[in-house]
Amino acid sequence: MTASLAAATASRRLPNSRQLIALIGVVSLALIAGAWFFELVLHLRPCKLCLEQRAPHYAAIGLSLVGLVLARSARLQWFVLLGLAGLMAWSTGLGVYHAGVEWSWFIGPNDCGGAAPAAASMQDFMKQLQTTRIVACSEAAWRFLGLSLAGWNALASAGLFLLAVFGLLRGRSPA
């Protein structure tokens, strides 16, 4: 009797599917807010891969909102968690790839580093040279505890992926 009571108590403390969906959405929103803070307040300009890493989080915010409003049944919540797991797996992969490019483990995309528009005259070209700032994907703009923002995104996204998988396994496959 005591074991079943302990299991029931532990089960009530674990987040349900709706809470997991909300948590993943809120953390994705916080990650996007952090990226915008670093860009707009601290003036760390994002590279192409930095901007690509935001896409899964934007989608996760939207999917979480739609899931919280429309997914009333356990089956629909399971599908929302499945979508969120896929988005966070994608985000984790992008973060690992970008961090690997920064550590020279992988070759970055050829077009990462930006391109300035063609100058109309030599004077315009000289002005562009002085004002244009190219952001390379292979250079981390900021590090904390040895990890770049791409590395932290990979860790956060992996954690969110595991939360979504936890919800999927707890909810079992829909019938």
Structure characterization notes:
Strands 1-2 form a two-stranded antiparallel sheet. The protein has a single domain, classed as Bromodomain-like, CATH 1.20.1550. The model has no long low-confidence stretch (mean pLDDT 79). By secondary structure, the chain is an all-alpha fold. A hairpin with a 2-residue loop joins β1 and β2.
Describe how the helices and strands are arranged.
Blueprint: H1 2-13, H2 17-40, H3 48-70, H4 74-102, H5 122-131, E1 143-144, E2 147-148, H6 149-171
Antiparallel strand pairs: 1-2
**Strand tally:** 2
**Main pleated-sheet profile:** 2 strands, antiparallel
At the fourth level of CATH, the homologous superfamily is DsbB-like
End-to-end gap: 31 Å
Give the count of helical stretches: 6
CATH class: Mainly Alpha
Provide mean pLDDT, rounded.
79
Strand content: under 5%
Question: What's the assembly state of these chains?
Answer: single chain
Rounded to the nearest angstrom, the radius of gyration is 21 Å
Note the run of SSEs as H and E: HHHHHEEH
What form results from the Cα inertia axes?
elongated
**What would the CATH topology be?**
Bromodomain-like
Overall helicity: 55-70%
What key attributes describe this structure?
single chain; 175 residues; Bromodomain-like; two-stranded antiparallel sheet
Would you summarize the structure shown here?
With about 180 residues, the chain is mainly α. It has helices spanning about 1-15, 15-40, 50-70, 75-100, 120-130, 150-170, and strands at about 145, 145-150. It has one domain: DsbB-like (Bromodomain-like).
